[in-house]
Fold this protein.
Amino acid sequence: MSIEELDTTVVGVRRPRIEAPTKVTGTALYASDLPVAGLLHGRFVPSPYAHARIVSIDAAAALALDGVAAVLSAAALPIAGSGTRALEPLAREEALYAGQPVALVLAESEAIAEDAAELVVVDYEPLPAAVDLDAALDASAPPARTSTVGAADAADMAVHGDAAGSVEEAAPTASPNVTSTHRLEHGDVDAAFAASAAVAEGVFRTGWVHQAYIEPQVATAWVEPDGTVAIHSSTQGASFARAAVARVVGIPLEKVKVTPAVVGGGFGGKIVLIEPLVAAAALAARRPVRIAYTRTEDLSATNPAAGLRLEVKVGMDAEGTLTGIRSRIAVDEGAYGDMSPSGLIGPRIGAGYTWPAWDVEVTAVKTNKFGPGAYRGPTATQCTFAIEQLVDELADRLGLDPLEVRLRNAPTEGAQKLDGAWPAVAAREALEAAGEHPLWRKRAALPQDEGIGLAYGLFPGARFAAGAVCRMEPDGSIAVVTGLADITGTATAIAAIAAETLGLSFEQVRVNVVEASAAPQTPVSGGSAITYSVGKAVRAAAEDAREQILRIAADELEIAPADLEIVDGAVRPIGSPDRGVTLSDIARKSTGFGNAYPPVEGRGATVPAELSPSACVNIVHVRVDRDTGRVDVLDVAHVQDVGRAINPLLCEGQMRGGVTQSIGYALFEELVHDEDGQLQTPTFLGYAIPRAEHVPAIDTVIIEVPSKHGPLGAKGIGESAIVPGAAAIANAIHAATGARLRTMPMTPRRVWQALRES
Amino acid sequence: MSIEELDTTVVGVRRPRIEAPTKVTGTALYASDLPVAGLLHGRFVPSPYAHARIVSIDAAAALALDGVAAVLSAAALPIAGSGTRALEPLAREEALYAGQPVALVLAESEAIAEDAAELVVVDYEPLPAAVDLDAALDASAPPARTSTVGAADAADMAVHGDAAGSVEEAAPTASPNVTSTHRLEHGDVDAAFAASAAVAEGVFRTGWVHQAYIEPQVATAWVEPDGTVAIHSSTQGASFARAAVARVVGIPLEKVKVTPAVVGGGFGGKIVLIEPLVAAAALAARRPVRIAYTRTEDLSATNPAAGLRLEVKVGMDAEGTLTGIRSRIAVDEGAYGDMSPSGLIGPRIGAGYTWPAWDVEVTAVKTNKFGPGAYRGPTATQCTFAIEQLVDELADRLGLDPLEVRLRNAPTEGAQKLDGAWPAVAAREALEAAGEHPLWRKRAALPQDEGIGLAYGLFPGARFAAGAVCRMEPDGSIAVVTGLADITGTATAIAAIAAETLGLSFEQVRVNVVEASAAPQTPVSGGSAITYSVGKAVRAAAEDAREQILRIAADELEIAPADLEIVDGAVRPIGSPDRGVTLSDIARKSTGFGNAYPPVEGRGATVPAELSPSACVNIVHVRVDRDTGRVDVLDVAHVQDVGRAINPLLCEGQMRGGVTQSIGYALFEELVHDEDGQLQTPTFLGYAIPRAEHVPAIDTVIIEVPSKHGPLGAKGIGESAIVPGAAAIANAIHAATGARLRTMPMTPRRVWQALRES
């Protein structure tokens, strides 16, 4: 059936997440809740220095404490190699950032472990630290690492995929901290700028931003008698974590099991971090081990979004067509580049536009901070913050309508982009809907110091190979078997896809999330991939199951499958609702001791042929206090193309969540280090996430331009939802005050500074 | 590819069981080894009476003991209904056999539970017991049960399937203990007997026989916070147990998980017994609960093979053709008929022959003993004990060669049998091979009191609906995902089937046994079904996976799939061993972040079109001590058609195991009750299983007559292997002494008695 013809009855219906009752009533089993016999609790000994040589570790006093089972240093772990975050879950001879775990205390209780950690005496030889990104790039900067780096498995670990096709690796610059330089070039950018009616430029800075999930990192591991390492983890990707553990700990894949727990928020931060360590610790201690971060450990020693410096210059002709872009981007990779976005950011600076010419260079820089990880829409928020301000500025200077300018440069399918060709993007539909939104029309008449800004954005998303099983259970219900970590309600979405495809009610389908070695190939819950990529596999599996069900019913009823339909839990001849065979009957005859038919085992194994980015537009209304620089977000409209809203309630949840997170990103959130590399924001008192008072009602507008590739036309929407938010706030601040902000977060101090300068 | 053309490289190779090293080194995780936090241990309060009304249960003293968490009676369990074993895991108002669990004590340790169980005071009102099968059939017998029976779920629980098609339910006789009467009739048996050259008859009795697994029954259950009941059990059928728990405990199927543990022997006895109880106890106690039977509990309160009385009369014409059979069979169903073989035994009395006429009546009788369960080749050993002696006797009386007589009456495909039409059976091949065996030829010249006997037998086996998944893992290996309980080396067999089909080495395939709700439909490991039925699904899944692998390789190499082969872990163009793409590459591109291809997810969902019984012949050489009646088995040859030997070593293991068990059945094993219904054989001191000295070297002869339906021609062989053993020993005793034995086990006393009578 084609998407247009599709008259859905389950898909498109607003319903709460399947697991909501367990979360609301406190019966969801989070990773830290799992009862484990003989469990040891881990607590870190963190480095007090941003950079230091570890001379010695004296654990005698800690080990003397009653209830302490072990104090593990890097050397005690069954992990060989060095140089990557994965291979150095505990610092080896050198501590590379303040808060880096140097030793792991294992004790019978968390309290004992905490007491013991304070008794571990580490003798350090402090080394000069490279903290600030700009300073670290200087040729005279101290090296952020002095010890030799072993064979890294960074390529394997790269969750962001390979760098784009046209990227080249250049020789390092003179700074000892530059690890790589990537270039993307096309056309003559100088000539383009020369021929432009206007050119705008700026140096944009964005800080390190934490994913700020509610539940800190937590994982438990134990070793079964045959040597199998079993891990139960709050992870976004059980299969990925399984492979990482096998590789890092050096055990065969078949000897690793990873069960995904209920995840209390991830946003990219829980792809794989502590799983190899907890596995290694369990192997070393020969006891079950749990590591549950405190909030301070989580803010100090995980994998937030990298700090960036983006020099960007953009040209536009008199009609509003973009002519070219030049950008020099420095990526702060901190101490470990395993999960650096430096291979990814080059294409991202192109944002949602087509460019006739570009010259982009990305430099990855080591510093003495934690290493970066993934964060919802990695680097797109930051790049869009730069581009959407420059585009706004050019439209302003050329006297063009900002919406018209964006429409003019929006991509058409097949047009060139920095890393290939544009797939279909409903940018036009999103921008036009934004143009009609009352909030956008309201901007003409606003009080003093208020402004309305707009930004457009998208994230390309990912297309992942995925498998799924739709299995008829002995009671006639359908189980979707998957290994997915449900961080955004995707289990609810795929249940609807299966039910819709099979002609069943939502209640007749359930989702069985199973341990990674038992699960069909399931990608990381990242890259906006689950509904789009896994949902596609579920759709295929459900179609397969439906065929099998109809085949059995056809045999029972002696009617051709094509003349049958599934209605109300039974297969009936089309037009003869009084005849039929129930799904329970079919289950009994194919799963019990009856054996008339093979069991119903629908299988899906798919990979979308291309990406289906979800375009979106934010319109933001702000009021700026000129005396303090405080920005209040008064109103937001978020328009987003979702392809098809499998569950509009959950789509809106993603949209509202993205906008809310973008407000934090734009105005509040930053992991701040002092010049010695000490984290100044180690709790939620200092690391400011938006509170209810900071988030206005958000008007969400869903647009449905079906994807040719996603299940029932759906697109992945989770990441795009955050992308334009910060840029829209910056443009609104400009509309209110005439000031252009170049640094995120746009704190009162920075806004006040910008107001003074403008 | 046709079976005949098949040139196998993995299948047909002798190799030990995959899991053998873990069992030999003690690292296999048996169900009682599972560490569980907060575990309570269960111990039963058994009934001292074979039949009694339970007046009251006083648990006060037991509950006062430190460490006792609960004392549960039937009323405290969340199980409604009555009348079946499943619904009465603890006796309700009436104890129905000596040793029946009346209450369950839950305590922090097994020792405390045991002490507390002795403190529970149960007030009984003894009732007259119906113990002996013959006596229970008398009209004046006391009823074995006086309390009302609720809605039973016996039909649902019937693991032996429905009774055969031509069976009718007759009115109960005058005895209060007869629960049903089944009849099978065809032709005029009286006329057949009248026209026969000879008629032989006898009344055969066989005792209750325990499966005598090494590991007693054990299961653990806990309730997850969302109400899901998780069970870890030594079970032969996790999926079946899951459905049984859901039904008996009255919770939705989706809220039950059953993980099959390593099984320390089952032989039919661990299909489902304690799982509903342990689940109900965990729900009642709100704590994890383990029930691990002691040996005495296991011999006293499980589900052994039922005691039988078989009156059989058989006619033969002068040429040796069987003319008809009349049989009256009484089945001792004990206290519970849930798993009674009474619906199954009627057709079994026809053994491996075609009959022109039959008249069979089966009467099921309640007594005050445990209920029966399945036992390797249910009832076939007993029926064959009768038939093969009578056939032997007729051949003897008519002066015909016993092997020739059997060949003459062996079934041809499509010929009528008592419950339908004969599928293909390689009886002729097996009998002919037996005839050529040196041991059979040795019988002409034997010392005094020695004899060689022969018997032929088969078990029809089962054809079960089964699913299987062959999944390519991220490291390029293949995982066969299944829910099977491996009691006989079947994981090793299905790994070979998958490897052979995929063109891989045995080592490149592993078997992932997963929890029942995660597993493809997997039948109970019974009915000789796993290699035959699950192996067929694995074969289909592997073929599906192979196609998917070749499709990816074809795309990579730009060569048609038909021109490719899988060799040495890579896909190569046929005839170009230097080109190709490795399976690791294919895995990387279909499971990692590469995403060029969908993942390889081979799916099999099959049910064999008909049965493929495995015919076998035992030749046994015995010496009988005329003074004591002691029988020594000096030599055994076991000839068996296996269809195709997937792994000859494991086939021989099944054959040797079957013969060994048949020696126990024939000579030693019986659960003996005194006239009050007290079990006289509550330990392995009294219940005599064969020791090494009782089992001679067994010569196994594998015949391969491929099945049209089994994977690569394989047949299910586990049950047939035991069937003719006891009859062959009986015939050998006759050959040695001229005495005919009518009762199993043929203890020295019974043999001595028969010698006196003959």
In short: The CA atoms of residues 57 and 627 of chain B lie 52 Å apart. Chain B touches chain A through 69 residues (CB under 8 Å). The first helix of chain B runs from residue 20 to 24. Chain B has three domains: 34-127+217-292, 382-400+411-462+611-757, 464-606.
